[in-house]
Amino acid sequence: MIISSAKPFEEILELLKEEDDIFILGCNACAAKLHVGGEPEVIIMQQRLEEAGKRVAGWGVPSAACSVASFDSLIEKSPALKEAKVILVMACGSGVSTVSRVAEVPVYPSNNTNSLGGRSQGEVIPELCAMCGNCTVYYFGGICPRGQCPKQLINGPCGGSKDGKCEVDQDKDCVWELIYLRLERIGRLDLLDIIWDPDGIPD
Amino acid sequence: MPRTFKEKLLSDDFLVTAEITPPKGTDLSEALGDAEILRGLADALNVTDNQRAVMRMSPLAVSKALLDNGHEVIMQLTCRDRNRLALQSDVLAAYSLGVRNISVMSGDHTTKGDHPRARPVFDIDSVQLLGAIRKMKEGFDLSGNEIGGLPDLTVGAVSNTDLSKPMQLLKLRKKIKMGAEFIQTQAVYDTGQFQTFMEHIVDMDVPVIAGVIPLKSAKMARSMNENIPGIKVPPEMIDSMENAKDPAWEGLSICAQTIRELKGLCRGVHVMPIGSHSRTPELLEMAGIRKEK
């Protein structure tokens, strides 16, 4: 899941300062699950924009803002889109970019895109994957150090972790601590002996 | 002919290395003055590389200045500020300027320093950089192109000595496997714990140079315990600092005692005072270390 978060409303208003007849396009995939682009959030955005004196042309929530066949297909589902002078996309950067490719009008983002993460038991888990294009996560017990270590160290921890916490964020566990515990639990500590070369290949 | 650091590593000498901090600015007088204090006392001077992610003069320039003044240097090289091209290119530059010892490390994260929004690089890590330098010594760059070799280069690495973190030990093993010829450690205060560390790596057959930082006050000891990973000043040491009439002297005396105990445990000490080396000669004298000039 792409982890995105809502920009402050003031920033969105500033973006839309010169704009009117805004169509709000949500996203029923990741952004909806994260409550930053589903129908309830789209409706609240409409209210807030109108309260701020903006005309809202309409809204729609496609199944995924990053998977759009054509602008006509969007209009088919939301005819009000035809009248819109601008589109505010409540989705991640790939959603905004995909809509921008097909739209004839300016497209604005309402969210900031943070990382490729997940959600489990109600908890949002950011930065699970660095999208390096060479998946070796199995060797690290399913916990990717490239994604989660701020130094992307794949041969073991730096000397900066203190009491098992990350040098960069004392509230975060050092990912190498987690990897060790996980591999210990599944009986595969031997995987830690692998020396990874600069291209992420066992040396 | 004075022996090189490499020759001394291969001897039975108890070695002294010391840290020199490059200037924040272009004036080298303080760094050179600090080095001058250590002439005849230190076997090699480590030149730090934007330590704690605080921007300072390049260790390359400071190393060259120290070499010109007749000092042996260990140039530190972190993976934080350079990608694999820049790292290899700086290794070549250092070697051509006369640097014969390099010590590699990951480097503190940029967010900890004075340019917290700088993009951290970490293209390769310290283990991979050791591998790259080993390859360079054999005459090839990381892509396998011929570069002619750096036959007299000695390369080292760093380590914590805290055994409660098994991953630290695993990483140290990788560093030695990839060609680290000496290890300098984080500051040691508990020599008992350090002894256990040495027993754990006895099979690795690598010279270990233990770090020492003389305490200046009880407050400094507490602050290091809180803020510097890998440093543990035992409570009884903090107590004696607290009760000392002259804390700075007490700190030196504790450090001298630590060095005396380390003499039987490892191959040398690496002195990293906070501030200048003005009292390092006194410290080494108290610890009973005399070097033949």
Average of the residue pLDDT scores of chain B = 96
Number of helices of chain B: 11
* Helical content band of chain A: 25-40%
Give the overall shape of chain A, derived from the CA principal axes: elongated
Low-confidence regions of chain B: none
Distance between the termini of chain B: 11 Å
Q: Work out the number of β strands of chain A.
A: 7
Low-confidence stretches of chain A: none
- What is the number of helices of chain A? 7
What do the pLDDT scores of chain A average to?
Answer: 96
Structural class of chain B: alpha/beta
Sequence of secondary-structure elements of chain A: EHEHHEHEHEEEHH
Protein structure class of chain A: alpha/beta
Largest sheet strand order of chain A: 3-2-4-5
**Largest sheet: number of strands, sense, barrel closure of chain B:** 8 strands, parallel, barrel
Helix content of chain B: 25-40%
Q: Give, in order, the helices and strands of chain B.
A: HEHEHEHEHEHEHEHHHEH
Write a brief caption for the model.
The complex is a heterodimer of chains A (203) and B (293). Chain A has 203 residues and is of the alpha/beta class. Chain A contains seven helices and seven strands.
What does it look like?
Chain A contains seven helices and seven strands; from the N terminus they run E-H-E-H-H-E-H-E-H-E-E-E-H-H. Chain A has helices at residues 9-15, 30-33, 39-51, 71-77, 93-102, 145-148, 175-185, and strands at residues 2-6, 22-25, 56-60, 86-89, 107-109, 111-120, 123-129. Chain A is elongated and about 60 Å long.
